[in-house]
Amino acid sequence: MKTAHNIPVMMYHHVTEHGGFLDVSSRQFERQIRSLAENGYTALSAEQFEAFLRGEPMPRKSVLLTFDDGYLDNWVHAHPVLHRYGMKAILFAITGLIGNGPPRPHAGQGKPVPACPPHAQAKAQMFGDQPDDVMLRWSEVEAMVSAGTFEVHSHTHTHIRWDLQCASVEEKTERIHADLELSRRCLEERLGAASSHLCWPQGYFDDDYKRAARANGFHHLYTTDARGQNLPGGDPSHIYRFVVRDRSDRWLRNRVWLAVHPVLGPAYNEWKKSRKK
Ligand SMILES: [Zn+2]
User: Fold this and answer.
1) Is 96 part of a structural domain of the chain?
2) What is the pTM for the complete model shown?
3) How far is the CA of 77 from the centre of ligand 1 (A)?
4) How far is the CA of 96 from the centre of ligand 1 (A)?
């Protein structure tokens, strides 16, 4: 078996009817996932990805699909597509925003599906009085976990940037600890287990955040830094991810090809870094 040199980790937020900023349209999402499946890509579990970072071999065409926050559209539009093509994704859920109540209809069931707003609107609503209108419910999460389309890991309990809210380092550290502890406990209570995988809100972290994460059993830390490759023996506390755009399956295949290329991948990342400077 040919094995993976490095594994691209893709970052999605929404799959909505129309697509947009941080939203992939359901039509493009279906094309992207179908194309990965038809081209022989394996979507790994968090545990398999963890094993890869430890040095265990994984199939050459391996990818990790991740979703941030835990939006209702993940159930309505992404879940049925992943199910159709036997692909799996990792959901980083803001555990404090997941609601209660029965599952709502998803696409493909022949029933009207709930409206799933684009990112800007969803973002305003998720921190408003009615997060349930745009966020997942535990019943939907459970259904996706049992279908094998999504695994659920922590994106903290509140998504609050404590570094911006607190006057002192002590207060900040205390708040981060409490937030992570609550998220872990919530996952354990609701789903029976919590993992060592954590995604930073807004991609922000510093040494205090990292220390708090480690103290709460989180060792696989997902960034929004796209400028590097996830290699065997690589640092599990700095996992690189790139954003998947509302683009074609061909764009995604090219992006993956570039991300994993042993020479052009790092060259592209260096070029991007130098342009940023
Ligand atoms: Zn987020």
Assistant:
1) yes
2) 0.96
3) 19
4) 12
